[in-house]
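#data-curation
PF: Archiving a pair of folding outputs for the training set. Convention for this channel: one message per protein, sequence first, structure tokens after, nothing in between. First:
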Amino acid sequence: MFEAADFIIDEANPEVVIVAFDRSLTYEKLCRAAWHLHCGVPGVATHPDCFCPTDQATRLPDCGSITRCLEAAAGVTLQVLGKPDPGMLRLAAARRGVRPEQTLMVGDRLGTDIRLGRNAGAHTAWIAATESEWEDCSGVIPDCRIQNLGELQQLLEEELGK
């Protein structure tokens, strides 16, 4: 992903440690990242979600869990640059020539995805299969709640058909 954006990956002498969801995370990667952070290399995280929703019988540690691990191991605090900061959505809207209030933020996380949409002034649709997260983020209210993307497609087709 980073190589495709013309970033140079330099594990020996990084200019920054970027923490994100990583399905190929190893203990060795954690140790190297913690060392660089401990030695003063700045670190950023893409978002604070601690686990990734899944329909599988497993719990997927996400960026927030990795961030907390590295902060504890390195004795530092990482800056979160991604969601729920509205800058990402505002930039995406500007690139498409629209205002944030003309966009729809769709996400499965109230505390980050939907909060990002709210922070940017966008419309929001929360994909929610269960009630569990609703209880965790009672202050974040989406414009609509759907069970899946098929339901969103149906709602949009109905709305556009008016």
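PF: Second:
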Amino acid sequence: MLNDPRPENAEAPDPNEVVTVPGSDVSMPRSDINIDDGPPDWHPDGHPPMPELVARGGGEGVVACGYCHLPNGQGKPENAGLAGQPFQYLVQQMEDFRSGLRKTSEPRMGPPAFMMRIG
């Protein structure tokens, strides 16, 4: 089971433990996998270099786009794929979120609030 919940009072994973994922030659310490540093790129040869905003975010309160939309831009089931979208389309979506023209189906979720901070 992926992300099997730890039993109560279980020790936290060792942050220095080196982790991998199936199908990737990349390995990294568990401590490198956190929202503040952007998404882990398990398949760096599978996509062009990420822009800084996608890879690392845009400063305080602006989470890396790749954290939700993945480093390759394909997204996950719960969010949109961005790969192949024209730059101006993406800019327009961010402007529409900020102005209120575009809404989210779940306003309590953090990611739509993150997108409104991009600017």
